[in-house]
Amino acid sequence: MAHSNKALFGPFENWQTVKRIEKAHDAAIWTVAWTAQEKIISGSNDECVSIRGRDDMGITHRFEGHRLGVLSVDTDAAGSILAVASIDCVIRFYDLDKGISTGEIRAGPVESWTVSINNDASLVASGSHQGTVNIWSLKRNGNEYLQVARLACGANEFNNYIQGGLDDEAYIEAAKMKKSQSTINSKIYVPPQPNFAMDVAFSPDGKWLAASGIDGIISIFDVETQKRVSILKGHHQPVRKITFSPDSSRLLSACDDSRLLAFDFAREEHFIDQYSAHTGWVMSCQYAPDGSNRFASCSGDGTVKIWDTAVSGGHVLASLEEHESMVSSLAFSPDAKKLITGAEDGCLQMHSLLPGEKPQLPPDPDSKFHLEPVSFAQIEDSLENVCNTLATMIIPPDEIIDEEPETTQPPEVSVSKRYKSEDSPPHQEQPMDLTSDNHEPSAAAISSPPPS
């Protein structure tokens, strides 16, 4: 049986960083988006949202006044409506075609965090500190957006008190009786446990709403019935980002445990794979919108990775390391050939998939050891042969060591440039074109992670 070594040694896609704006914002960038109309959106702790063009990355609109900082942005499928969630618990809406504000939802203290708009722009959802997901209709009644549901997401599968038909007063009264079970509206009420909803996401087909919690639990709700239909487990730390595949059949989660998990709704057990290559919190992820087997992830380790899911455990097609601080958010272009990333130091970068495979560096001739990939086409299908043929260690005969090497003190470990504490890079009015070789990136310090 013939084998392929491509999963082990390639292919490697030729992703390169082509543009960079060192100070796209005056503070950390927490969220980015790329619309169907090719507009690039970034939201920051500087209380501003910037709208940029794809080609020159110049600002076309700038929306200010998002008190305490911008947490999350999302647009409808057409790319015309923008929703912005900020720490002041106000969700603001903008018309991207006209560049104007169109309304806002004052969710109330701790009742709003991240935000998601469904495919036909009829609903908007936001998670809360209280472990609930609030849903509003975007078809306004006068000047107000009507709240249509309040769902609870926690480990307790009876936590969805909205199913019992409780209004706020009944909910408060029931909470007072939490020491004993009580029947309200012919339903057994169990007070919801706080489960800070860190992210929410509508599926592209509009059928599902997912919510991820600080305890690692992911809840899946049926949008039509407003009932929870699945609880996805596997993480035990905060899940910062969840995203559906373009066909709505899979869900990908990014967690503080440095892993990404994939779930398939067609399978009884749901869980299908995990991906581990980051060394810090995984801050964000997104499936490629072209329907391919790829997704991208970014992390507190300062890297951005492009993955191929056709291989069990994932194969990293590219690892981008141009950022010098924690990478907080990312978004694919509609054709999946470009990627925008935003970082904690306020830097915004554009990466592009170029033709051909990424060239691999040849082995260092001065190195005593290097790996040589081999073909499995001519070997037998046995574990011993695979292990013996996987790589060949090259040691020059005249440098084979026969005696015990002298004990030496370990070298002093130097701090990586990415994590040095230096001054912020100078403000750049125009994005840097990184297609030339005359650019040397500057370092920036990592500060605290996004609020949780």
UniProtKB/TrEMBL annotation:
Region Disordered, as annotated, extends over 397-452
Please name the Pfam families in this protein's record.
Answer: WD40
Q: Which UniProt keywords apply?
A: Repeat, WD repeat
Query: Which domain of life does this protein belong to?
Result: Eukaryota
Any one GO CC term of this protein is: Cdc73/Paf1 complex
> What ranges cover the WD repeats?
63-104, 200-231, 232-273, 275-308, 320-350
Compositionally biased intervals (Low complexity): 441-452
Q: What is this protein called?
A: Anaphase-promoting complex subunit 4 WD40 domain-containing protein
What is the scientific name of the source organism? Answer: Aureoumbra lagunensis
